[in-house]
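It is worth pausing here to work through a concrete case rather than discussing structure prediction in the abstract. The textbook approach is simple: state the sequence, then state the predicted structure, then interpret. We follow exactly that order.
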Amino acid sequence: MIIQITGNEMILAAIDIQSIIYAGVTMVILGGVFAIVLLIASIKLKVVVDPKIEAVHAALPNIDCGACGFAGCASYAKAVVADPELLGKCAPGGADTSAAIAEVLNLQVSGGGAPARPIVHCRAHTADRTYYAQYSGIESCTSANVLPNVQACKFGCLGYGDCVNACKFDALNVVDGLATVDYEKCTGCTACSKACPRNLIEMVPFSYENMMTVACSSQESGKDTRDMCKVGCIGCKMCTKQDDAFFMIGATIAKLDYDKYQSGESAEAAMKKCPTGVIVYRGKNAPAPRAAGQKA
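Step two, the predicted structure:
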């Protein structure tokens, strides 16, 4: 078979080849221009990161828990380099992290302090409490706290786990109606203390592995507290007579001054004299508190 190509077809083919060449050259030129523009922009707009900020960020736990008051570890690293007065705000990192940051910033760290850990100021399990009615609403402490008669005590743990949900480290569990801290997992991030609608969880400096505490927040009279809870503080002042680290808030409840607290015979005597057993230990190896109604 013989195919004849006319002059017009040859002209069209030549035009198509020229168009392709022009388009290719144009794309190469445009690509080169864009590459030059991007190179100039990368140089002009380059963000220079302070090496101190990078070093501080590397020293932090990088768990972004927010305990320091900033959005995350990167934000805190930038802030502490700008203002060294913020040193020591990282609760999960503790004294070791503070020392590492101080070394980066060429600062001297004095003391270091005891790590803060949460203590739930309530020890009443389900069987220890008096209930007015069965709560069947949203299983949230914040929701239940709105109702006046969820349980007789208006100050005790509600046990619906808002603190558990707030903890990123699985360091809290609700055990038989009571929020319970797993101190092996706890980092001291403060999320649980912020989540409790009754402010039952206090961040306490653990100057000892196990810390003594008054595990109650009731502000009712001794008689009313006895009617509502088997293990509440009745304001008898027995502990304050044994150790001056204990003090009364009004006439209703005893508290422990952690700055004055010293582990020893007087503190142990205060715990043994407590008629309701509301003074207990909390910590990694804390002994179990005595049962409700059991004498020391």
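Step three, interpretation. The chain has ten helices and eight strands. The mean pLDDT is 86.
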